[in-house]
Design goal:
The complex is a heterodimer of chains A (274) and B (171). About 8% of the residues of chain A have low confidence. By secondary structure, chain A is α+β, with helices and mostly antiparallel strands. Helix content of chain A is 26%, strand content 31%. In chain B, 73% of the residues lie in helices and 0% in strands. Chain B has 9 helices and no strands. In chain B, helix 1 crosses helix 7 and helix 8 packs across helix 9. Classes of the chains: A alpha+beta (274), B mainly alpha (171). Chains A and B meet through helix 1, helix 2, strand 11 and strand 14 of A and helix 1, helix 2, helix 5, helix 6 and helix 7 of B.
Amino acid sequence: MSVERRDFQRAVERFEPPQPAYERLLRRRDRKRRNGRITGLVVGLFLLALMGSALVFGSRSGSRTTPAGPTASPTVRPGPISQELLPGNDRWLKPGSHWLSRGDLLISFEVPSGWRNIGYVAVHTLDGAQVSFWFPDQVPTDPCTWTEGVRSTLASSVDGLAAALGAQPGTTAPADVTLAGYQGRSMQLRGPTGGSNNALMDCDETRVDTRMRHIYVRWWDGDYWFGEAPGQMDRLWILDVHGEPLVVVASWSPDTSPRTRSQIDDIVASIGIT
Amino acid sequence: MERPIPTDHETTLNAAASFEEFFEDHHRALFGALFLVTGNRAEAEEIMQDAFLKVWERWARVGVLDDPSAYLFRTAMNLFRNRLRRASVAARRTLALSPWADDLAAVEDRDELVRWLRPLPPRQRAAMVLTIYRGYSSEEAGRILGIRPSTVRALVTQGRSGVRRRMEGGS
């Protein structure tokens, strides 16, 4: 008994790509072009800054050839340019100002040392902290059965998304909030606890590295999924950004240190949206 | 009757229309194959899109090939190989809070082959898809995956025996 081409043919035909597939391809092409332009802009600005500082130093060193007297002006040191667009791949981030591109938005924030990025959606630490930015298109009606679960389409407005998430277990009541100058709703989510009394045991599984884990998934966004591991805590800011709900999520786990928790607050407080 | 010479704009439109037809004809098969290999809808779609975008950039040359779909599959599998290499270098624990789902689990009950393939490592699945489904030789599949032909044959043999064990075990 052997597996043959027709078996593969039959299996392959069972998988339907997300629709509308061609429009999604065009959107990805546009996103890549825009990211390319932004990268070009960043490189251009960096080069301009280098040229500017070279000119400043050049003129200073030129002026040193003339007698300056005892009250010469103080030395100007160009500061390091640490502002960077988060790349698609994951890596350690330099402390300082970073920004990412979501849709037509540029989102900036300050990160301390010890943080990495997850693609273009999130920054995180190895002790379970994460700050992430999402445009979820749908949320599952039942976060426990998300692989085949019926998905709500309520994510198209701030109130709709807040109501959909607010109806799920472990969520606090939404409250009015303003972040980075944008108004919206804030709430807290809590993933069911794990351990021996694992309330997620009946939930759908996902693969993290080679391990299978039960996960509480609440939404999808392009290439990434937002899911809750056992015991994970999330504070959400669902902001009305030009009519679309941008979701900022600060996440932490029971393993997250108090120092990292404090860093999460600092990152959220530094968020700017343009 | 002479055919009118197309303007540059018309030529671009024709090329786009032709590429769109190519996309319509092949995206399901490519997505399905990538889904079998990666086990993940989002990853399969992303690789599929990147492969089509690469083909589109070279459409003037690829569109006139005898079998542009072979180029498409080769490009897609190259992208998969690159991702697999990056993934093995980077600690995937970074995805603990936004995990990639093993979506094969969602459909495995509906297809026996999917159920038997799912536990296999991605490299074995890729080798099987290339050689059995796409009909590539071990040499061609080896070039695409960046491994030796003998490794391809070993992966396919291991994959086949893994599937056979599960078939006979009824699991």
